[in-house]
Amino acid sequence: MTSSLIEIRVLEGPNLYFPRAAIKLTLDISALAATSEETALRFASRIGLKNARPGAPESGFRQRFALRAVGRLVRAVAQESGTSRLGVRVRPTSDQHQIVVAFPWSHRERAQEMGRAIGDVLDALLSKDIDAAVSAAAERVSTSEPGERPRTLTPSVPVVAVTGTNGKTTTSRMIAHIGRTDGRLVGWSNTDGIYIDGELVEGGDYSGPSGAGRVLAHPEVELAVTETARGGILLKGIGLTRNDVSVVTNVSADHLGQQGIDTVDQLAEVKAVVPRITRKSGWAVLNADDPRVYDMRNVVRAKPWVFSRDPDSPAIRETLNAGGRATTVIDGWVSVLTPKADPDPLVELVDVPMTLAGLSRFNVENTLAATSASLAIGIAREVVVEGLRTFLPDAEHNPGRMNFFSLGEVSVVMDLAHNEAGLEALMEIMNGVRRPGARLLLGLGVVGDRQDDLIEKLGEIAARDSDVVAIGHKEKYLRGRSPEELEALMRAGAERVGVTGVPAYPTEVAVLAALVGQALPGDVVGLMCHAEREECYAWIAEHDGSPDSSSALAAKVRAAAAG
């Protein structure tokens, strides 16, 4: 017989279910769904579930009964084993025979034994005495070894935590740069690694709890900036008990169909964990132009500080009326709004290199978010302005995100662009530096752990918005797929807009070389670069290419606009 316990996952800190360490169980409830109504009622009676109406086997009523019954089972076993008043959260999944159960833990081994015992009780529904099975489960839990306590860290230095679908890495880098401009020794963790005072000390994806822990363990760090990704929250929990300032950049479709997150609304709920643990005296920096993000103000204790490109946004007005703050753009100036005061203009967008003279909509938003967070953490106004003026869209300050190069008369733009919003932002930027009559050539690539429809959509956007498109594979990120399978999906998307015969190359370097090789003076080559960033930088340098300075980039923007 298949075990009812599919997975036990130990969440080390605040998570989707609780603001503290928790155990997450994924359970198969097939036995409870299929058992007779009589057996279901006996089960309900044994665990103290009142007013039970199990409904017919395999019915929608039975599924809802199962959610309530399993939650009550966990509480009953906890109570009989000597643990009282245990919080329990139960959620359905996209599979009607699978549910998720979560409960906080204080001792690791005993909590995991509870999870195993719950699975055994569900296994016994069809074959053993229910009363004895529940009693045995409680006995196992009460006599188990307690195990270690949670390792969740309570920060001793100010922490800015950044999350969102797009822009979180750029925003966290900008905040860290502004912090260093203030003379602070800054440690930050993100999807590229762990940085201490601007130096990469360990490469890898550290957007989970281990990254924050490594940063805070450094004895000299004065300000911590943590990038917090969806996967880290779902798989391990957040490694910190709290943060002082949180930032949510936006929420859009990405990584759906993984870890039980199937909709954008569910994804927003995951991202909301970050502002939910912001201390009451701190600030939650929220994107007022994203309804799902702005709605998070209703679940946080911290004061709201919103950002919006629209100074007349109703969300700004509502936030100011509630005593919060806002950062926006007025007459081309990054400006801060506070209740009952005139706007404070900080810096013109044209003087903030990351905005590409205001051309990059996403980087305008990232600038507003970073400005808000930096002021909220206590960095002086003039220092924030200096940090914004000196943070550049180059490989040194923001590797892999909107990096511009010139190879003779050809422009090259490299960006992660890993989802629909990211690719559309890349195309927007490429158009912003294209001379009149020039072409856009795009190196398209995807990672394998995306849903089929998203991969097809990226192919469609790429073919629709570029003049020449070619596929460049990311061998390190196939994640169980074959190159041929990914090619077929991207080509299917391209064919929806009438583009056929899209060529494919084995690497990102190969597709970059192919596109640059056919580019004409004035053309813009874009590369969705993820797997071979350093190799692409090296290829450009070997072919006499050079990074664009902020003045050179501004000149390209002006030349494109003049046409």
Write a compact overview of the structure shown.
With 563 residues, the chain is of the alpha/beta class.
Note down, in words, how this protein is organized:
The chain is an alpha/beta fold and 563 residues long. The strands form 3 sheets. The protein has an 11-stranded mixed beta sheet, with helices on both faces. A 7-stranded mixed beta sheet has the order 20-19-18-21-17-16-22, sandwiched between helices. Strands 1-2-4-3 form a 4-stranded antiparallel beta sheet. Helix 13 packs antiparallel against helix 14 (381-390). The longest helix is centred in the first third of the chain and has 21 residues, at 60-80. The mean pLDDT is 90.
How are strands sequenced across the largest beta sheet? 8-7-6-9-5-10-11-12-13-14-15
The overall average pLDDT, rounded, is 90
How far from one another are the termini?
A: 71 Å
How many helices?
20
Low-confidence runs of at least 5 consecutive residues: none
Evaluate the radius of gyration.
26 Å
* Number of E strands: 22
Report the β-strand fraction as a percent range.
Answer: 15-25%
Structural class: alpha/beta
Largest sheet: 11 strands, mixed
- Global morphology: globular
Helix content: 25-40%
